[in-house]
Design brief:
Elements lengths: L1 H69 L5 H9 L3 E5 L2 E4 H17 L7 H32 L5 H12 L8 H12 L3 H21 L1 H17 L3 H8 L4 E4 L4 E2 L7 H6 L10 E2 L5 E10 L3 E10 L2 H11 L3 E3 L9
Antiparallel strand pairs: 1-2, 1-8, 3-7, 4-7, 5-6, 6-7
Helix pairs in contact: 2-3, 3-4, 4-7, 5-7, 8-9
């Protein structure tokens, strides 16, 4: 009897354990029903988010490409994007021409044109005028990019100090001693440029000037010949002009002019000399050749001089050869000048 009762109790206890196990499994099973669908939903949400993001980026890229390359949008938004993302507008001998450099130039030119109240043109003709500025700006950007390429190959550099010095010199062009604030205001009003943009222009211009000076050994040779002749003939510019003919360009003011005249730096150098004195060779402020000047007469504010100019030609010769060899690739369609 006791044995039967014991077996019965064992059976009941075992049944309770089984019930607990069954209950536990039932609870866990119900939990799984909520857990795994939730994990699946999260996984699906991540995949969908990634797909949407990728599609969004692709659409933005396509829209940006169409705006820049097809519709040639020159607005503020696309210009700012091109300044951050270095997309190319062309290539010169494998070197990419930055879209931002092209847009910076053409936008400043069109802003200057817009500020010229005397300029009047029919609305139907304005498109041709704009096309002309675009063509000039792109060609200029290509030349400057080629100068950057040569500069890297030749180890030519432009320092921040040189840019700052050029910036200060430009503030004083025309004899006006402008503050940086007022100068930047003029730049922004007349050309739509800020300081970073203008310093970029100065950097590119200085780089081209240095490169031209370094590669043009022919101009260097002619300049030395001019120096020797002037030293031998007592500074007779007319004689050098007649002897060297097409190798040099002769210039004369024909009378007194403002000693702050914008003429490649000649009036400034001439005004620092005494009448009859001849300068040594100096680089034009445009960086496109060497000047020699002789002061004929001067006052406190005016100067009269003659000059000889040795032009750099090697850079343009090489650039033309690249163009002829099909090594300049443009990624936007623009009409050639004169078309």
């Amino acid at each position: 009897m006791n044995l039967k009762l014991k077996l019965k109790n064992d059976k009941e206890r075992k049944t309770e354990k089984e019930k607990v196990e069954e209950r536990r499994e039932e609870v866990l099973s119900r939990g799984r029903k909520f857990k795994y669908p939730l994990q699946y939903a999260k996984h699906k949400l991540v995949i969908n988010t990634v797909i949407i993001a990728v599609v969004g980026v692709v659409l933005l890229v396509v829209a940006g490409w169409a705006a820049l390359y097809k519709f040639q949008d020159m607005g503020d938004i696309m210009y700012r994007i091109s300044r951050v993302v270095p997309v190319p507008v062309a290539s010169v001998d494998g070197e990419k021409v930055r879209f931002s450099d092209y847009l910076m130039t053409v936008r400043s030119s069109l802003t200057a044109l817009d500020q010229q109240s005397a300029f009047e043109t029919k609305e139907e003709d304005f498109g041709a005028v704009e096309d002309g500025y675009k063509r000039q700006a792109l060609t200029q950007a290509e030349r400057l990019t080629y100068a950057l390429k040569l500069g890297k190959e030749l180890g030519v550099e432009v320092s921040k100090e040189e840019i700052a010095k050029a910036f200060d010199e430009h503030r004083k062009v025309g004899g006006a001693e402008r503050s940086e604030e007022s100068f930047l205001k003029v730049l922004n009003t007349n050309f739509g440029l800020d300081k970073d943009e203008y310093e970029r222009m100065l950097y590119l211009s200085l780089m081209r000037s240095k490169v031209e000076q370094k590669i043009d050994t022919a101009a260097e040779k002619v300049a030395k010949e001019v120096e020797a002749k002037l030293a031998a003939n007592g500074g007779n510019f007319d004689q050098v002009r007649d002897e060297m003919k097409e190798k040099v360009e002769f210039g004369a003011t024909g009378g007194l002019i403002d000693n702050k005249n914008v003429d490649g730096g000649r009036s400034g150098v001439a005004s620092s000399l005494k009448p009859g004195e001849v300068s040594g060779r100096f680089l034009s402020s445009n960086g496109d050749g060497y000047y020699f000047v002789k002061t004929l007469e001067k006052t406190d504010t005016q100067v009269n001089y003659v000059s000889l100019y040795v032009k750099f030609t090697e850079f343009e010769k090489r650039f033309a050869e690249l163009s002829g060899a099909g090594l300049i690739k443009e990624y936007i369609s623009l009409p050639e000048l004169g078309q």
